[in-house]
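Researcher: We're reviewing a set of sequences before deciding which ones to prioritize for further study. For each one, I'd like a predicted 3D structure that I can look through quickly. This is Acyl-CoA dehydrogenase. If possible, include the structure in token form so it fits the rest of the review sheet.
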Amino acid sequence: MSTTGVSEETAAILSGLEGFLRAEVFPLHEEYAAVLNDQRGRYDETGRHVDRVEELRRRVRTASAEAGFFTMTVPEDLGGGGQGAVTTYAAWELVYRLSGPHRWLAHDVLAHWATGPSFVFGLVSADVRERVLPGLMSGEKSMCFMMSEPEAGSDAWSMRTRAVPDGSGGWRLTGTKQWTTNGPYADYGLVFAVTDPDALARRSGGVSAFLVDTGAPGFRVDSVISLYGESGGNHAIISLDDVHVTPELLVGEEGQAAGIGLGGISLGRMYNCAKSVGLARWALDQALDYAAERRSFGRLLAEHQGVMFPLAECATYVHAAHVLGLDTAARIDAGDRALKESAMCKILSTEMATRTIDRAMQTLGGMGITTEIGMAEAWHMIRTVQIADGSAEILRRLVAGRLLAGDRDL
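Model: Here's the predicted structure for Acyl-CoA dehydrogenase, in token form for your review sheet.
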């Protein structure tokens, strides 16, 4: 584990996190391999995780919360550890480097802002915070982020979900949400809906956020979205049919939820950068170990320049993405929104990881495409990350716009 570029405090946290993963999480994948490591046991006929899988996910979250890792990035005034962006980035990178794609329960060890406690709860009423936050902080409960729609992906201004006043200070929500991560399993949903169509048309606001109980009448998971040929998944299409929300369920100010969404997406981009670098490091480690042991044409693979030079190039880009990630996180900790830098970081990190995993797969030859190794699963994860929280094309548009606007501090 490399701790270069981080403080002694962060290095100590990373060391403790590694110990927790190895002692408490990874053994579960051996004990419950039949349901965790084989999709035929992981999903039911609807595409949802079977009860045992959700039980194990909850077990990991609650154990991590007790150990102090799950909520370490939640703001201190909400009861969390208050760790900044650098520690958050480094911790997520470590999780994915150690776990890879197969030991995926590890991906629940840290609270992700869209599925667990986060800054969002500084924007809710005291009553809602006292009622909802403890369950999320303990890991017993989870949530989902509901912004994307069938006709509104990167262009959030095309949102169609509506929140209509009900005459008593509350609203009625109607619409459809798509690509909702953790949607099939969440206890609460952070729903974005249009409350002022005129402001939305001017692209000057008009979108509000609401914290909704997923058991509320009219809230329905229509289907689970499966990816890359799997029989189930973690994403959902969700319908809201006249869902009633009371005034205290408004998050932040009415009509001003765009800032919440953008803030969350920025955090999501840094998470995806760390995930990309972590998985790339995992893949590179697999390839290097294999090249140092496997013989071909009477020599170790590592003695063939055609094998090692591409891996050396991959290592160069892995390091570059890692350094850019730490630099971007440090800018965020210093109070910079780092819009341009986080976009650059995601472009570099995700495209680098795609190339690195592909090269590692080729290095392993036939073993590289087996389910046993997990290289194909890692490639699938990275291809998904390349689209989440802004595709590379959308992010290049953002970077170009910032450069033309004079933001040229590189």
